[in-house]
Amino acid sequence: MSEPTIDLRAIWNESGVQAVLDALDAELIGLAPVKKRIREIASLLVVDRVRRDMNLAAGAPSLHMSFTGNPGTGKTTVALRMADLLHKLGYSRTGHMVAVTRDDLVGQYIGHTAPKTKEVLKKAMGGVLFIDEAYYLYKPENERDYGQEAIEILLQVMENNRDDLVVILAGYKDRMETFFRSNPGMSSRIAHHIDFPDYKDDELLAIGALILKDWNYQLSPRAQKVFLDYIERRRTQPHFANARSVRNALDRARLRQAHRLLEGGVNVDKAALQTIEPEDILQSRVLAGVRAVPDTKAAS
Amino acid sequence: MMTNTGNRITQGQFSFLPDLTDAQITAQIKYALTNGWAVSVEYTDDPHPRNTYWEMYGNPMFDLKDPAGILLEINECRKTFPNHYIRVMAFNSLRGVESPAMSFIVNRPKDEPGFALTRQEGPGRQIHYTVTSYATAKPEGERYS
């Protein structure tokens, strides 16, 4: 008699992971390496669960992660999906995410930090704790900084309550690397380092289209070209935050569109209310000096 | 107190039952959390039944989603006060209710000496009763040690 076999595919389908991954694919543009890594983690967890059912103990997999990347590359969004994914796979009991920064963990006077950090940790138990800009916890220039205390409590809980919560640290790549170098204990407890690449121009345009679709707006074909130009220029300017910059730019375009419609005339149709035209984007400070769109004018 | 062997004090829920295991405590807390009640951990070494206000251990815990955090606090309290009474309270903050919805003991001293009953004769053969715990003769913090 042969050994019983297990249909991994069936378990995969049954867990509902595919739905989360599909949503990830549909709603997040680009980020191919991130998606690949998440798929790998999901596979590992499914296989691990099957192994556990067959009594092949391997110890609970360490799930703490670090997300590095520039602002606006989707770290928080992916963390939310990750919480959902872990919940579906049974590695997180509630699947909720608590997002915190240094302020929520570090106290203002002696003895304030420990209860504060513990409170946050307790709130995150059963789910995912997302620490944004985690490197601010460690301030080497001030040796009386209470951040170190928060890190120590965090490390302890990350080790002892591995079944209860998953910690995700996020921040800029270079600063996170310095942070990990100066906190080797933290680095060794994090199994998955995922790097979020910057978006390409066309990806940002697609993201913009997705955001607008959500708001029931759309870019006119000419406006699309102008917007691509806008993204190119915006990238070279300071404080460029990828998808967030796109979102803000569209917010302002919406503002100008409303203004243009009111100034322009009384009668508008549904299409006019939905469409963002090149002039709504051209007025932007980023495109100052670019008034005409040479090759697109002729086309329309 | 012949019906209550071992002089175990009985107050709150489940106090006539054997001590709850951690898994059972977790299940009870989970029930409280799904109802949206705030759970807190309290301790005392004065077992008198009219001693309603116990000391709170740490801060009250609001907005928790999972019992693991509270179990963590219970175990820490047990470590600090291994020979005290420790109870878990669930507070229902619903307007108009605003009172504890659950309360059960999760830790007891190893040895509970029970209560002395004092009868005081009043006018007209009236009797006043007083219960005093044998443990409370010593000052706070030194009882049950």
Summed up:
The complex is a heterodimer of chains A (300) and B (145). Chain A is α/β, with parallel strands linked by helices and 300 residues long. Chain A contains 15 helices and 7 strands.
3D architecture notes:
The complex is a heterodimer of chains A (300) and B (145). Chain A has helices spanning 8-15, 17-27, 32-53, 75-88, 102-105, 113-124, 147-160, 173-182, 184-189, 201-214, 221-236, 242-264, 270-274, 278-282, 294-299; strands at residues 65-69, 97-100, 128-132, 166-171, 192-196, 218-219, 275-276. Chain A is of the alpha/beta class. In chain A, the strands form 2 sheets. Chain A has a 5-stranded parallel sheet, with helices on both faces. A two-stranded parallel sheet of chain A has the order 6-7. Chain A has 15 helices and 7 strands. Chain A is globular. In chain A, β3 (128-132), α7 (147-160) and β4 form a beta-alpha-beta unit. With 145 residues, chain B is an alpha+beta fold. Chain B has 2 helices and 6 strands; from the N terminus they run αββαββββ. Chain B has a 4-stranded antiparallel sheet with strand order 2-1-3-4. In chain B, strands 5-6 form a two-stranded antiparallel sheet. The model of chain B has no long low-confidence stretch (mean pLDDT 90). At the A-B interface, α6 of A face β2 and α2 of B.
